[in-house]
Amino acid sequence: xxxxxxxxxxxxxxxxxxxxxxxxxxxxxxxxxxxxxxxxxxxxxxxxxxxxxxxxxxxxxxxxxxxxxxxxxxxxxxxxxxxxxxxxxxxxxxxxxxxxxxxxxxxxxxxxxxxxxxxxxxxxxxxxxxxxxxxxxxxxxxxxxxxxxxxxxxxxxxxxxxxxxxxxxxxxxxxxxxxxxxxxxxxxxxxxxx
Length: 194
Ligand code: URA
Hints:
By secondary structure, the protein is α/β, with parallel strands linked by helices. The protein contains nine helices and six strands; from the N terminus they run H-H-E-E-H-H-E-H-E-H-H-E-E-H-H.
């Protein structure tokens, strides 16, 4: 299966009721060249209208944080825990996350990223289990042989602008670690326990 096949299966998905209220399903988008996959919560209004992830205000914040860390958005793959917009942007239900899990797992299997960057509590809970992004953010953990790096969700910066520096700093740190991995270093990442 290719990334395009995975995207097509998202576009035609009817595994949960969110398909009835969406305008467009929103598959992940981008490239694996940087070795990093970013995972957010769920599409918002702009994403639902355009069928592309992180193209609204939170997307501009993410793009700017990447730019500040010297990374082009074109070199990263960006996706969400849930691929269809929940009505009124509510947090996706557990049943919706479960129904969408196969799509996210397929993206990870195909892209084989060096690191999955988990943005915010919903992605954190879905991928790693547990809560507490504030305490867990900014350091690498390992789970089932995969490296995960939790950070704050870009939308949190809208409500708390002081988090802009936190997001930028985390992304800068993340790509520093990725450089070390590419250089063959075994990085320190404890096994995650919720
Ligand atoms: N917030 C998300 O979590 N994902 C998007 O695609 C947009 C906003």
